[in-house]
């Protein structure tokens, strides 16, 4: 089911899956990812595009249970072919790569859009992109953005800090989701965990992933501290409005809203952990 991004809890872990690899799709379907992105773009060689469209159609028909599913389409003329292949069984969302301006968004997409911000123009025009009624979320495309910015060391989060924060600011101003970019270091567990926590602290709703091994540490990074959750429950239990005293400090309605958001994430994580233990 399509989610209203303005009010619903965003998926924390967003896993890209090459659409031309059936085994990867099956593995992702049984994973703890909160959203799967079947990738028709960069992950698929040109010679395999048609086969990948067929695999996506079959995968969507079979369904993904409670996991949200998106499809990343190609740009240009190939996008039209991708969108036609999705008409019979649309995904929950469609990911549009390299969106530099609202005019890059397709007019005939069958479902809401997640726009990838992966060029300098996209960063500078992100507000207009996010304000488009078809867009429910922004995704930071860090590999392409680093390349376009001529960064000598590839993805350098310190050098990209302005762009990352701009994406979060725009998402919050426009009431859409925002997802941190991928981490290419699939064998550096500690490095990934640190990067995921940094994305959480920046305010991203979740993070895009390129390997199943990144799912669990990503979910953990977006898991609130138990002590903070306990405090959030106490705040909500006050059942008051406006400014009021709470354990030696003043809180307002916005603190209650933040507490409810934290509780919702904690409860979702608890349900997921319970379901995993029962398998």
Number of strands: 10
Q: CATH topology of the largest domain, anyone?
A: TIM Barrel
- Overall, the morphology is globular
Overall average residue pLDDT: 89
- CATH evolutionary superfamily of the largest domain: Phosphoenolpyruvate-binding domains
Please tell me the CATH architecture of the largest domain by its name: Alpha-Beta Barrel
Characterization of this structure:
This protein is of the alpha/beta class and 279 residues long. Helices cover 43% and strands 16% of the residues. It folds into 2 domains: 13-221, Phosphoenolpyruvate-binding domains (TIM Barrel, Alpha-Beta Barrel), CATH 3.20.20; 226-278. It has helices at 22-29, 49-62, 77-85, 120-124, 126-130, 142-148, 161-174, 189-202, 215-221, 226-237, 253-278; strands at residues 13-18, 35-39, 68-72, 93-96, 113-117, 135-140, 177-180, 206-209, 244-246, 249-251. Helix 10 crosses helix 11.
Please provide a brief summary of the model.
With 279 residues, the protein is of the alpha/beta class.
Topology:
Layout: E1 13-18, H1 22-29, E2 35-39, H2 49-62, E3 68-72, H3 77-85, E4 93-96, E5 113-117, H4 120-124, H5 126-130, E6 135-140, H6 142-148, H7 161-174, E7 177-180, H8 189-202, E8 206-209, H9 215-221, H10 226-237, E9 244-246, E10 249-251, H11 253-278
Parallel strand pairs: 1-2, 1-8, 2-3, 3-4, 4-5, 5-6, 6-7, 7-8
Antiparallel strand pairs: 9-10
Helix pairs in contact: 10-11
